[in-house]
Amino acid sequence: MPENPQEPYDFETNPDEYGQSGFEHGWTHPSELPGSPKSSDSARSSAKWAALGATAAGTLLITLTLLALNGPNASQKVVTSTLAQFSSPAAASDLDRDYGVVAVEVTNESGVVVGAGISLGDHKIITNASLVAGAKKINCSQQNSSVDLQVIASVLGVDLMADLAVLNTPEFDFPPVQLGSASEIDIGDRVTAMSIGSDRIAALSYGQIQERNALAVANDGSVLPGMLYTDLLSSGPLLDSSGAVVGFLTNSAPGNAIPIDDVRVIVAQIHTSGRPRHGWIGVQVRNDIGREGAIVVAVVAGAPSDQSGIQVGDRIISLGNDRVRSSADLLAAIAQRRAGDPVLVGLTRGGMTQKLPVSLGEQPASSAQSGLRG
């Protein structure tokens, strides 16, 4: 265990800054594990990525079919990317001693399934909601040197749209990982996906960020805004080159990770109210071809947008301080806020620009499956 355990995060007094402090040493960089030579940050990063080529198990060409939501009618486009998968038994063995990564073992009617989770401290574990669906029993464990910790977990709450579940492990507080920020990630940045197999041992896959603020379509047809799109078909935490967690990969839209910044908000909402409370203004929008903005094609009667005076045909160009270039931008800006938040919506109507005050409502469950609705 670390000599100076991290202080658990106080959700009640500071939910909006969750993960911003106090988690700086929860993650052990692979080069800092026992048996690894000391090196500078730049040398360590260079050595890490150079080693990937040497330990490559192979390259898999994967064709992904995504929905291109660039107009009122969705069309399909095929995106072909090269997915580099790397594995190393030595690296996997070292990862067993990584404190913040947790194996989540779920017993359901079909048997036993295992996936990856991360510890946030304060007895809380993040994992995929799809992993724990229908769970009769959940065990969380990690292999730390000669000690094999296994504790019973319960579900505090889930966000089905984001494919996230918050677990509670009252018997043991797993040391937390280091949390980063997706705002510091750029297209082309190298990232690492950490998964855990049935043997409860962590394995790594390496890839790149293909798109930021991506608009993903989940398997059930729901829309996931503001995602990090990668060339990795994995699940579990997504790490940057320093080892900080910047996202959590979803099973509902393979290759996409919900930014850790959004995860923090969801965790705080589940902690305080027992459920996620996604912001919502009640509009259906489409892209404005050839121009920036999101064109309003429908307004939900009685919704915050209706009450504020937003009309069909308005071109939304900003939400608060966030510039809206497309429908994806608008949905991502809304997703980063909470129900009850006041915000100014900038729009153009009849050649005139104006800003209307809107108080965000809570997104109804049915709206997630109704297309580009925010």
Write the layout of secondary structure elements.
Layout: H1 41-54, E1 56-68, E2 75-86, H2 89-95, E3 101-108, E4 111-121, E5 124-127, H3 129-132, E6 137-144, E7 147-159, E8 164-168, E9 190-196, E10 202-217, E11 223-230, E12 236-239, E13 245-249, E14 256-259, H4 260-273, E15 279-280, E16 283-287, E17 294-299, H5 304-308, E18 315-319, E19 322-323, H6 327-335, E20 342-349, E21 352-359, E22 361-362
Antiparallel strand pairs: 1-2, 3-4, 3-6, 4-5, 5-8, 6-7, 7-8, 9-10, 9-12, 10-11, 11-14, 12-13, 13-14, 15-22, 16-17, 17-18, 18-19, 18-20, 20-21
Helical content band: 10-25%
- Euclidean distance between termini CA atoms: 44 Å
Q: Could you tell me the strand content as a percent range?
A: 35-45%
**Tally of individual domains:** 2
Please give the largest β-sheet. 6 strands, antiparallel, barrel
Give the SSE order as H and E letters: HEEHEEEHEEEEEEEEEHEEEHEEHEEE
Structural class: mainly beta
Output the CATH class name of the largest domain: Mainly Beta
DSSP summary, beta strand count: 22
